[in-house]
Amino acid sequence: MNFLNFLISGISLGSVYAIIALGYTMVYGIAKMLNFAHGDVIMVGAYVCFYAISRYHLPPLVGVLLAVLVCTVLGIVVERLAYQPLRAAPSLAVLITAIGVSYFLQNMALLLWTSNPKSFPAVVNDRKMEFGALKISMVTIVTIASCIVIMLALTWFTGKTKMGKAMRAVSEDKGAAQLMGINVNSTISMTFAIGSGLAAIAGVLLCSAYPTLMPTTGSMPGIKAFTAAVFGGIGSIPGALLGGLLLGVIEIFAKAYISTQLSDAVVFAVLIVVLLVKPAGLLGRQVREKV
């Protein structure tokens, strides 16, 4: 039963990583850039939900929707102001800008909300479902269910809708997509909007499971979610799901059976081994560049 409990906890944590990893994998797949400020968008979403519920006494669902709305707008604004002017710049300039945006958001959070840790309110009913000796919390069930619904909805969106097909076209070839009448800038902005909205959901789910909120809350989950995206194959939506779930399970089992202090080291060591064997990630495609 301990093994099953650890496995379910790992899948729950991995579901949060998978939702966050979607933001990385979509932005990289379409804009070919790494948005390292994505982890801080998680923190902003969690703070918006926290104040909506605790200070303004709004229903939890309204708090979550407000967090999604704020983070969606934030994602569009960050893309327009920080990344769009660098569309033709070297990748190193974009990477440094992303790190700068990350520190900017963290320091703005420090000024607005101070560094004092806050106890995140219960968004999901904290009762537990019992199956014999196996106990599963409602937060775990909601987290896993949310991940499945989001993955299915995103797969349908990218495969069936006009905007989703435009995203896939921009991902394949920006120049050809523009010649076919696709607005590349609007498509990339939509990608940031979707990724940031999902980051808000992930932030609420993460703080519901681990109810401590501070300006650095999104930093380590953001790095681990990026690791999950690379693990599964960055640019692949199914890869983000697989990478996130595997990363969560590995982390929980490492904490349970090896050491809580060494769990992060085990996670990154597994990533290194996977990339040595399969550099494109588990579901990634090896792309040959023409010279």
Explained architecture:
This protein is mainly alpha-helical. Helices cover 72% and strands 4% of the residues. It has eleven helices and four strands, in the order H-H-H-H-E-E-E-H-H-H-H-E-H-H-H. The strands form two sheets. It has a two-stranded antiparallel sheet with strand order 1-4. Helix 10 (237-257) packs across helix 11 (263-277). The protein is globular. It starts with a helix and ends in a 14-residue tail after the last helix.
Provide the descriptors you would attach to this structure in a database record.
single chain; 291 residues; mainly alpha; 11 helices
Set down the secondary structure blueprint.
Blueprint lengths: L1 H30 L6 H17 L5 H24 L7 H23 L4 E2 L8 E4 L2 E4 H23 L1 H11 L1 H6 L4 H26 L2 E2 L5 H14 L4 H21 L5 H15 L14
Antiparallel strand pairs: 1-4, 2-3
Helix pairs in contact: 1-5, 1-8, 1-9, 1-10, 2-3, 2-4, 2-8, 2-9, 3-8, 5-6, 5-8, 6-8, 9-10, 9-11, 10-11
Report the sheet-strand fraction. under 5%
Average residue-wise pLDDT: 89
- Amino-to-carboxy terminus distance: 55 Å
Radius of gyration: 19 Å
Helix and strand string, N-terminal first? Answer: HHHHEEEHHHHEHHH
Percent helix range: over 70%
The number of E-state strands comes to 4
Largest sheet: 2 strands, antiparallel
* Secondary structure category: mainly alpha
Shape: globular
Helix count, per DSSP? 11
Strand order of the largest sheet: 1-4
Low-confidence stretches: none
Quaternary: single chain
